[in-house]
Specification:
With 186 residues, the protein is mostly helical. The protein is built from six helices and no strands. The chain has a single domain, classed as Up-down Bundle (de novo design (two linked rop proteins)), CATH 1.20.1440.20. Helix content is 77%, strand content 0%. The longest helix has 58 residues. The chain is rod-shaped. The termini are far apart.
Length: 186
């Protein structure tokens, strides 16, 4: 009888240790997703800080392009005000489009394209865009791992018991951003 009781206690302790390990693993993964999101946020903040400087540098040259400059400023404001991952993703897509329009207009201003301050800011922004892309990839990798853990047996039982929710991916929602850019020398 003592052996049966000991065996039962070992099974119960192993079960409790397994539940604790799965719970702690889910908490760790959730925190890694939050950390990965904060890495994106850091780069987006850097981008949002660079854009006004770029706009100010361009303003002196682009006197007739107020609409384009205003579009970038408005898109930046929307991006700063976005809260959720989905809202941020949509707002950043709008900012990307506004910046693309801005760079198209810049092509008509050779003096601006030669300005050292503008070139330095443009290089900083390009570097930041690369860091954002890298951070998005890292975030989406963490989300994938976390979401898989929440959906896979047996950790899905623990995730359900403790109300762990799937995280959203940082996705492109504007299909035009998925298209390959066209280069024409005509």
């Amino acid at each position: 009888m003592d052996i049966v009781l000991i065996f039962f206690l070992v099974i119960v302790v192993a079960f409790v240790v397994g539940v604790i390990a799965m719970y702690n693993g889910l908490v760790r993964l959730r925190n890694q997703v939050k950390n990965a999101w904060s890495q994106i946020d850091v780069q987006l903040k850097r981008r949002h800080d660079l854009i006004p400087n770029l706009m100010e540098t361009a303003k002196g040259y682009m006197k007739h392009e107020k609409e384009t400059l205003q579009g970038v400023v408005e898109a930046r404001s929307k991006a700063l005000g976005a809260g959720t991952v989905r809202e941020k993703s949509q707002a950043e897509a709008g900012l990307n489009n506004a910046m693309s329009q801005f760079y198209l207009v810049v092509e008509n201003y050779p003096d601006l394209k030669a300005n050292q301050n503008f070139l330095a800011l443009q290089e900083e922004l390009t570097s930041t865009e690369n860091k954002i892309a890298f951070a998005r990839q890292g975030y989406n990798d963490q989300v994938l791992f976390f979401n898989n853990k929440i959906e896979m047996f047996p950790s899905n039982i623990i995730a359900g018991m403790f109300s762990f929710k799937k995280s959203d991916f940082f996705e492109i929602e504007d299909n035009s951003e998925r298209e390959v850019p066209r280069v024409s020398f005509s």
